[in-house]
Design goal:
The structure is a single chain. Helices cover about 30% and strands about 25% of the residues. By secondary structure, it is α/β, with parallel strands linked by helices. It folds into three domains: about 220 residues, Rossmann fold (3-Layer(aba) Sandwich), CATH 3.40.50.150; about 160 residues, FAD/NAD(P)-binding domain (3-Layer(bba) Sandwich), CATH 3.50.50; about 110 residues, D-Amino Acid Oxidase, subunit A, domain 2 (D-Amino Acid Oxidase, Chain A, domain 2). Strands 15, 16, 17, 24, 25, 26, 27, 28 and 29 form a nine-stranded mixed sheet that branches. An eight-stranded mixed sheet has the order 6-7-5-4-8-9-11-10, with helices on both faces. Helix 3 packs antiparallel against helix 4, helix 8 packs parallel to helix 12 and helix 14 runs antiparallel to helix 15. The longest helix is centred in the middle third of the chain and has 26 residues.
Length: about 675
C-alpha cells in the first residue's frame, strides 16, 4: 500500500541557508546553491559537452530537494550551443515542498545566484525565470510519478514522490548521468544504502557517468559493489574531495537491459482509430517529430464512445490504493496538464486553428453509497491527500457546491469535472497538425481489414485489399476492433452497452457540477442535464430503449431528489415528450484495466511456451513495431493521454511516465503471460 506523503518543512538558518529540521541538514552548501550544482553535478558529469548532438539525454537524481540541480541543468541546456534534442530529468523525492514553500525557498536561493556564473549554464536572470516556471508547474503532493514538460516538451521533468528505496526500483529508464544528491549519509543513510546503488545499476546506460559531493567510505564501497568506477577529485567549498565516475561493471549486474529506442529506418507510425486513444497518440508522437498517419473508419474523429456529449473525469480513491487507483491518479493528473497545454496552444493559434477542449472547471462530486462511505473515509484519513486533490464533504457542503438537493454527502474533487470528448479529440489532432514541420496525414472513411509484415515495415490493407499505408510502427487504438485487426487471441475484451439520457428543461437546471455515484448527472448548456449510463455487458444493440431512460432517471433520482418526479413519470410512462439520448459501446477487458503498450508475439510464445512458462513481462517475445491503446472502458478521459505518453516513451527509449509495475498492469501481453504461466497454450 502506498505510504502517506509527508511534505518537507521549510526552515532557514541564521545565514539564510534553507535547512531541513527533519534531517538536521542544509539543502545546499553555504558557498552557493547554483555554484554547487554547476561544480559538482554539471562539471562532475562533463555537461553540457556529453549531451552534444544527442537526440535524448537522461539525468537521474536521487533527491530533488528545492530543484536547484534541475534548474541549473535546464539553464545549461538552454544556453548550450550544441544541445540534445530532448532532455529528460528524473528525480525522486520523499518529502517534497508545498508549492508555496518551494517558491519561498527558491526566491531565497535565486536572490543570491550570481548574475554571471562565468560558465556556460546559469545566470541569475534566467534562473529566476525558470524557477518561476517550475513553481507554476509544481504538482499536487500526492504519491506516485508526476510528468512536467517545459520548452514545448523538449525538457521533461519526471518526479517520483515517495521513498527512494521503494520508488527507484520501480522506475524504468536509461540514465546517461546520475546526480547522487541528498542529505549527508550520516543524516539520511537510507538514501545512500546498498539497495539504492543496486537500483541505479539497473538503469545506468553504457558509459553512464555519476558525481556526488560525498566521498564517504560506505558510498565508495556501494559504488564498487554495483559496477561503478570512481575517482576522487577536489570538492566544492569546504569539501576536500568529491567523487566522480562511470558505470563500467566487470561482471553482469542486472537481468534486463534498460530501455532503448525501437530500431527503425524512419520514425513513422500508423495509428488506427481517431477516438480518445488515437487522437492522444497523434499529438504525443507528433510532438516528438514523428511522421504519423491516422486512419479512421468514420468520416470524422470521435464518432463512437468518444462522441458522447460529455464525459466525467476524476481520480479513483481506494482504501488500499490499488493499482487501478494509482494508474487512474497518474492519468488524471497528467491529463490535466496536457489539457492545459492544449488551452495554451488554442490561445496562441492563428484564426482558431486549434479549439480548446470544452470542459467544466468547478469540480466534481462523488456521492458515497452505504458500502463505500466508510472505506473512502478511511482512505482519505490514511493517505492525507491535499484538499486540492480530494476532500470529504457532508451533505450540507455537498449541496452548497452542487446547487441542488442531494441524498447524502461524499467527497469532492476540485479538479475533476466533465469534458466534451469530441472537442478534445479535435484539439489534439489540430495541435499535432499545427506543429512546426508537422508530418501528420489524416485519412477518414477507411476501414482497416488486415496487416502484413513486409521487410522491416508493416503494410495495412483496407476491406477491398488495397494497401492503405505502410510504416515501421502500427498502433491499434480502435477499441472493439483492435484484437481482430491485430490478430490477437489473448485479448479478452468485451463490449458494454451504455445508454445516456438527455433532459431538456431539466428539473436539475441549477446543477453546478457533475455528480456521480450509482449513476451520474452532468449539467450541459441550455439547462440540459445528461444522465447515465446503463451498463449492459455483451449487448451491442445501439438503438435507444425506453427502459434505459427509465433506469438512468431512477438511479440518478436516488442521488438527486429533484429528479424523483421525472423518474416516477418516466417509469409510469407519463412523460410528456420523447426522451433524447445516445448509445455507445465501451470496450473493456476482464480485469477492467486498459491495454497500453507493445503487443506480445503470440506465435513466438507458442513455439517457446515451455521455456516461457515462468516468464515476466520483459521476458515475453514482442511483436516488432505493434502497439495497442484500447479497452479504456469508461475511463478513456483519464487514461488516454497517459497511455499515449507511455507508448511514445517506449518507442523513443525515454523514461516511462509511470512505474514499471503499473505499466505491467496495463501491458497488452499480460493475458499472454498468464496463459503461459498456466501452461494453457
Amino acid at each position: 500500500m502506498t505510504a502517506t506523503l509527508i511534505p518537507a518543512t521549510l526552515a532557514f538558518r541564521e545565514d539564510g541557508t534553507p535547512y531541513s529540521p527533519r534531517f538536521d541538514d542544509v539543502y545546499h552548501s553555504t558557498f552557493g546553491a547554483f555554484e554547487q550544482a554547476e561544480y559538482v553535478f554539471l562539471r562532475g558529469n562533463n555537461l553540457p559537452e556529453r549531451w552534444q548532438n544527442r537526440r535524448i539525454f537522461t539525468v537521474l537524481e536521487t533527491g530533488f530537494g528545492m530543484g536547484v540541480n534541475f534548474l541549473a541543468t535546464w539553464a545549461a541546456w538552454r544556453n548550450a550551443s550544441a544541445r540534445c534534442e530532448r532532455l529528460h530529468f528524473v528525480s525522486v523525492e520523499m518529502h517534497p515542498f508545498s508549492r508555496d514553500d518551494l517558491r519561498a525557498a527558491l526566491d531565497a536561493v535565486v536572490a543570491h545566484a550570481p548574475h554571471s556564473s562565468g560558465t556556460e549554464g546559469t545566470s541569475g536572470t534566467s534562473i529566476a525565470r525558470l524557477a518561476h516556471e517550475l513553481v507554476d508547474a509544481w504538482p499536487m503532493l500526492v504519491p506516485g510519478t508526476h510528468r512536467l514538460e517545459f520548452e514545448g516538451g523538449r525538457v521533461t521533468l519526471t518526479l517520483a514522490f515517495g521513498d527512494a528505496l521503494e520508488m527507484l526500483p520501480k522506475m524504468w529508464l536509461r540514465a546517461d548521468a546520475i546526480y547522487l544528491d541528498g542529505f549527508a549519509p550520516a543524516k539520511n543513510p537510507e538514501l545512500w544504502s546498498p539497495a539504492i546503488f543496486k537500483a541505479l545499476a539497473r538503469v545506468a546506460g553504457e558509459e553512464a557517468t555519476f558525481s556526488t559531493w560525498s566521498s564517504a567510505g560506505d558510498v565508495k564501497r556501494a559504488l564498487e559493489q554495483n559496477g561503478f568506477e570512481y575517482r576522487k577529485t577536489t570538492g566544492f567549498g569546504t569539501k576536500w574531495t568529491m567523487l566522480v565516475g562511470r558505470f563500467a561493471p566487470r561482471w553482469r549486474v542486472r537481468r534486463y537491459e534498460p530501455p532503448l529506442p525501437l530500431a527503425l529506418t524512419e520514425r513513422h507510425a500508423l495509428v488506427i482509430g481517431a477516438g480518445l486513444a488515437g487522437s492522444a497518440l497523434v499529438e504525443r508522437l507528433a510532438a516528438r517529430g514523428w511522421r504519423v498517419t491516422l486512419v479512421e473508419r468514420h468520416a470524422a474523429p470521435a464518432r463512437e464512445a468518444s462522441g458522447n456529449p460529455a464525459g466525467v473525469f476524476h481520480p479513483l480513491v481506494s482504501r488500499d490504493d490499488s493499482s487501478a487507483s494509482r494508474i487512474t491518479r497518474a492519468g488524471f493528473l497528467y491529463a490535466l496538464r496536457r489539457w492545459a497545454a492544449l488551452d495554451g496552444a488554442a490561445q496562441r493559434s492563428a484564426h482558431g486553428a486549434i479549439e480548446a477542449p470544452v470542459r467544466s472547471h468547478a469540480g466534481l462530486l462523488h456521492l458515497a453509497t452505504d458500502d463505500e462511505s466508510q472505506a473512502v473515509a478511511a482512505a482519505l484519513a490514511s493517505f492525507g491527500y491535499p484538499e486540492e486533490f480530494v476532500r470529504g464533504v457532508d451533505r450540507a457542503e455537498a449541496e452548497s457546491i452542487a446547487g441542488v438537493a442531494l441524498a447524502q454527502g461524499g467527497w469532492f474533487y476540485p479538479r475533476g469535472g466533465a469534458i466534451d470528448p469530441a472537442s478534445l479529440c479535435r484539439a489534439q489532432i489540430a495541435a499535432a497538425c499545427a506543429l512546426p514541420d508537422a508530418q501528420v496525414d489524416v485519412r477518414y472513411g477507411v476501414q482497416i481489414e488486415r496487416i502484413e509484415r513486409a521487410g522491416d515495415t508493416w503494410q495495412v490493407f483496407d476491406e477491398s485489399g488495397t494497401l492503405v499505408a505502410q510504416a515501421g510502427v502500427v498502433i491499434f487504438a480502435n477499441a472493439h476492433d483492435a484484437a481482430r485487426a491485430a490478430a490477437l487471441d489473448f485479448a479478452p475484451t468485451r463490449s458494454v452497452r451504455g445508454q445516456l439520457t438527455l433532459l431538456d428543461e431539466s428539473p436539475l437546471a441549477s446543477l453546478r457540477v457533475p455528480v456521480i455515484g450509482d449513476g451520474y448527472a452532468v449539467p450541459l448548456p441550455g439547462d440540459v442535464t445528461l444522465a447515465g449510463a446503463t451498463y449492459e455487458v455483451d449487448d451491442t444493440d445501439i438503438a435507444l430503449r425506453e427502459a434505459g431512460h427509465v433506469e438512468n432517471l431512477e438511479r440518478v433520482a436516488q442521488m438527486l431528489p429533484g429528479l424523483q418526479v421525472a423518474a416516477a413519470n418516466a417509469a409510469a410512462g407519463a412523460h410528456p415528450r420523447v426522451w433524447q439520448g445516445r448509445v455507445a459501446l465501451r470496450c473493456v477487458t476482464s480485469d477492467r484495466l486498459p491495454m497500453l503498450g507493445q503487443l506480445g508475439d503470440e506465435a513466438a510464445a507458442r513455439r517457446d511456451a515451455q521455456r516461457l512458462s515462468g516468464a515476466w513481462p520483459l521476458d515475453l517475445p514482442r511483436a516488432q513495431g505493434l502497439y495497442g491503446a484500447f479497452a479504456f472502458g469508461s475511463r478513456g478521459l483519464v487514461w488516454a493521454a497517459l497511455g499515449a505518453e507511455l507508448i511514445a516513451s517506449q518507442l523513443e527509449g525515454e523514461p516511462w511516465p509511470i512505474e514499471r509495475e503499473l505499466a505491467e498492469q496495463v501491458d497488452p501481453a499480460r493475458f499472454l503471460q498468464r496463459a503461459l504461466r498456466q501452461r494453457s497454450l
